Amino acid sequence: MKTLIVMKVVAVVVLLACKSPDVLFLKGAPPVAGVRKLVWSDEFDKSGLPDSTKWGYEVGGNGWGNNELQFYTARRSENTRVENGRLIIEARKEAYQGRNYTSARLLTQPKSTWTYGRIEAMAKLPKGVGTWPAVWMLGKNISTAGWPKSGEIDIMEHVGFDEGVIHGTVHTEAYNHGKKTEKGAAITLQDVTTSFHLYAIEWTADKIDFFVDDRKYYTVEKSVLGNSEAQWPFEQPFFLIMNVAVGGNWGGQKGVDETIWPQRMEVDYVRVYQ
């Protein structure tokens, strides 16, 4: 019996050791840090509009500080819906409210915010030049402090003209793209537009680790950035945002391919562990 148990353990270890980073994660898989507990999630099991108890919308076509081309809509199934167990955020080429593209920007504010933990989203990304999907977070105090003093954590950003390059970044008052001092790193995958990958951060008072498929590729540390609020505003509640932008200062750096639309980001689940 002991020999059989040992053989089973060895077999499991071998399977784990051989697992490709591109292997899809199944719903119900435990977090990497086993001591954490699931405190919030959306499995997108109910078809229709996103769960209004968990998600709200930001609406408008003002360029969103980045000269983006889309108008973000609310409760419009053409732009956001749940179907076949997945959340769809779809950018479309259409005239709407003075803009030529529509899309959606979902957020958990003011319904849910978190300070520290593991935040993860299993997603498949849109394809093509001009797409700019993101899974990211902003400080709860943004309405009073403003950006970038509130802090920003980009769990996943991708621009279509640079397909396969996933960016993880933080922005603060001291370190941000306006000053060209933002802190971040990138990892390259071959199939982000055709396969689902798990994008995550693990966030504590002292550091933020960035992961793709549980492979850590970047760490930003308070001891390196500094202790002041301008350097490290990450000791307060943050809320989650998911969106697909069109064009803009970064997403549109190489133009927008007008032949590719509609394009969608599909999200299998979002989970928060603390």
SSE blueprint:
Elements: H1 2-18, E1 38-42, E2 56-57, E3 70-72, E4 80-83, E5 86-96, E6 99-103, E7 105-107, E8 117-124, E9 131-139, H2 142-145, E10 152-157, E11 165-171, E12 183-188, E13 197-203, E14 207-212, E15 215-221, H3 222-225, E16 238-246, H4 248-251, E17 263-273
Parallel strand pairs: 3-6
Antiparallel strand pairs: 1-17, 2-7, 4-5, 5-6, 5-17, 7-16, 8-13, 8-17, 9-10, 9-16, 10-11, 11-12, 13-14, 14-15
Output the keywords.
17 strands; ten-stranded mixed sheet; 274 residues; mainly beta
Question: What would you note in describing this structure?
Answer:
The protein is mainly β and 274 residues long. The protein contains four helices and 17 strands. The strands form two sheets. Strands 1, 3, 4, 5, 6, 8, 13, 14, 15 and 17 form a ten-stranded mixed beta sheet that branches. Strands 2-7-16-9-10-11-12 form a seven-stranded antiparallel beta sheet. The longest helix has 17 residues, at 2-18. The protein is globular, with a radius of gyration of 19 Å. The two termini are 38 Å apart. The relative contact order is 0.23.
